[in-house]
Amino acid sequence: MPDASALLTDLYELSMLEAYAARGMTGSAVFELFFRRLPPERGFLLAAGLDQAVTFLEGMRFDAEDLAWLRDTGRFAPGFIDSLAGFRFTGDVDAVPEGTAVFADEPVLRVTAPLPEAQFVETRLLNIVHFQTVIASKAARMVLASGGRQLVDFGLRRAHGGEAGLFAARAAWLAGFDATATVLAGRRFGIPLMGTMAHAFVEAHDGETEAFLDFARTRPAGLCLLIDTYDTERGAARVAALAPRLAAEGIAIAAVRLDSGDLAYHARAVRGILDAAGCGAIRIFASGGLDEARIARLAGAPIDGFGIGTALTTASDAPALDCAYKLQAYAGRPRRKRSEGKATWPGAKQVWRRLAADGTILGDTVGLHDEPPTGTALLRPVMRAGRRVDPATADLAAARQRAAAALASLPPALRRLEPGTVPVTISPAIRALAAAADRAAAGEP
């Protein structure tokens, strides 16, 4: 699925690759991908994108055209470019399974590989994991706000590119959405497809009733009619009048869609019109500028499902997270960054999760990977020697089930989307390792 070309990266990755090669710096390195801090709008994140990340690592190549283009740039030594023909990822990956709730300072993915390989994959790994985690985390909030009502991804047209739209559909489904309108996502990921009709279809007909009849007779399965092109309540009355006529033809109207105005007001009015006509089985589906806050405010309205577009695929309130991929060890020694506001904890790490008796998350501890466990380990082996070792990483249905369990395990305040988060403790062993790394960097014993 992800573009396999190794040129889908930042220039500095290639520059460092050449410098590492020139200096013979090929020792084993540990890099970790994590989120430094959560924005105020997020009390938790939902990890996503691991399957595509592993697929990228397995398939990453410089093909003949890539190498020819690099030669033409004149930026790199010919011998270095020749060496890229056989460049592959041969390392190990441990990661938190997709659909797991994660918090600040916790490694979501750990790469152990020769330094050039571990460094070079930084850009694309961040690109894949960051984006899908952003969207899955936004979608999860909508799932919590919906109270079990149907959610459908309508966001492809507002996504920042085709791949973003596909990844958003996948991440939303993982987080608990019920369907997508993105057809290729149905083919690629097996996500159920759902769509309705456009206002243009109604406008193209001489009358609204004619438009409803034409669409119903052409697309009778799961029929949903858009009723607010001209006047919402009048549209509902026309649907109520058509229902017996279509029923005689064996066509059931499954739902009507509202896409504008005061959705709560119109939903109540439409519900009354349909019920009075004996059409209580017709559901009401709403769309139009919705996000989790508006969904929550519509809790008392007779709306059975929501189509979500822009707010989902752009994660409009928090479109970017403070995500990093940093060196934690090289050549057997701990390494750490000490930049102001961006300091890292050294060493290969594990995350241990503690749960209450009812399954609610109590807190997490970030410790060294070989410390005695203090809970359930979250990072699991995913790749060894450059190959996927856990086929379950490709199981989107299992990730979706895991996400549902993760949302159920959140503390009640987070399930209500209230401010706060889960406490994350850095182990004493990591703090001691950081102090030792600082002394070594200063030339002290």
UniProtKB/TrEMBL annotation:
Show the InterPro entries listed in the entry: Aldolase_TIM, N/Namide_PRibTrfase, NAPRTase_N, Nic_PRibTrfase-Fam, Nic_PRibTrfase_pncB, Nicotinate_pribotase-like_C
The residue ranges of the Nicotinate phosphoribosyltransferase N-terminal domain are 7-129
CDD domains assigned: NAPRTase_A (cd01570)
GO molecular function terms listed in the Swiss-Prot or TrEMBL record: glycosyltransferase activity; nicotinate phosphoribosyltransferase activity
Q: Which reaction does it catalyse?
A: 5-phospho-alpha-D-ribose 1-diphosphate + nicotinate + ATP + H2O = nicotinate beta-D-ribonucleotide + ADP + phosphate + diphosphate
Q: Which GO terms describe its cellular component?
A: cytosol
Q: Please give the function described in this protein's UniProt entry.
A: Catalyzes the first step in the biosynthesis of NAD from nicotinic acid, the ATP-dependent synthesis of beta-nicotinate D-ribonucleotide from nicotinate and 5-phospho-D-ribose 1-phosphate.
- What is the name of this protein? Nicotinate phosphoribosyltransferase
Give the species this sequence originates from.
Acidiphilium multivorum (strain DSM 11245 / JCM 8867 / NBRC 100883 / AIU 301)
The root-end lineage is:
Bacteria, Pseudomonadati, Pseudomonadota, Alphaproteobacteria, Acetobacterales
What would be the name of the gene that encodes this protein?
A: pncB
